Amino acid sequence: MIKISVVILNWNGQKFLEQFLPSVIAHSEGAEIIVADNASSDGSVAFLQSQYPALRIIQLEKNLGYSAGYNAALRQVEATYYVLLNSDIEVPPHWLTPVITLMDQDPSIAACQPKIRSYHQPDEFEYAGAAGGFIDKWGYPFCRGRVFDTLEKDQGQYEVTDEIFWATG
């Protein structure tokens, strides 16, 4: 069985694939890279087939949306770890190593995420995930590194592993 499958759900994201897929392929050592196409009409599949013929593509017959699209795709994947990665993400070298090492060491961990920094402001955390998701006592979601619309600069303040309530990709 494959240990790590990085699954990217795509819908009409050829431009994102052109821009960001090279970093995922280059920096996901030992992982299977899969693009699950959610019935794109923009040429995404043709682009992948011509530029990345060895890449595994799962073609969904219709756009199932985010959750159902991932569920349909993941039924066709067998791996120890599934990494659900957005198509608009540039990954750095060795990005998977700390996460997989942590999960290997503690089988009680169900999900985790690395710190996510903004592509356009790389010294700041990214709005949608920052350094891990939490829920306050009133049920309001927030992140380390982002509270409401305030984004912190990454100054190494969240280098410590911590338990989170939700993870993002």
Task: Walk me through the structure.
The protein is built from 4 helices and 8 strands. The protein is of the alpha/beta class. Helix content is 24%, strand content 21%. The relative contact order is 0.16. The mean pLDDT is 95. The chain has a 4-stranded parallel sheet with strand order 3-2-1-4, with helices on both faces.
**What's the tally of helices?**
4
Low-confidence spans: none
Order of helices and strands: EHEHEHEHEEEE
Instruction: Give me the secondary-structure category.
Output: alpha/beta
Indicate the proportion of strand residues: 15-25%
- Estimate the helix proportion, in percent: 10-25%
Q: Tell me about the largest β-sheet.
A: 4 strands, parallel
Write down the overall geometry.
Answer: globular
Distance between the termini: 23 Å
Summed over residues and divided by their number, the pLDDT gives a mean of 95
Q: How many β-strands, per DSSP?
A: 8
Give the radius of gyration.
Answer: 16 Å
**Neighbour order of strands in the largest sheet:** 3-2-1-4
Key terms:
single chain; about 170 residues; alpha/beta; four-stranded parallel beta sheet; two-stranded antiparallel sheet
Describe the SSE topology:
Elements: E1 2-10, H1 14-27, E2 32-37, H2 44-51, E3 56-59, H3 65-74, E4 79-84, H4 97-105, E5 133-135, E6 141-143, E7 146-147, E8 150-151
Parallel strand pairs: 1-2, 1-4, 2-3
Antiparallel strand pairs: 5-6, 7-8
Write a brief structural summary:
With 169 residues, this protein is an alpha/beta fold.
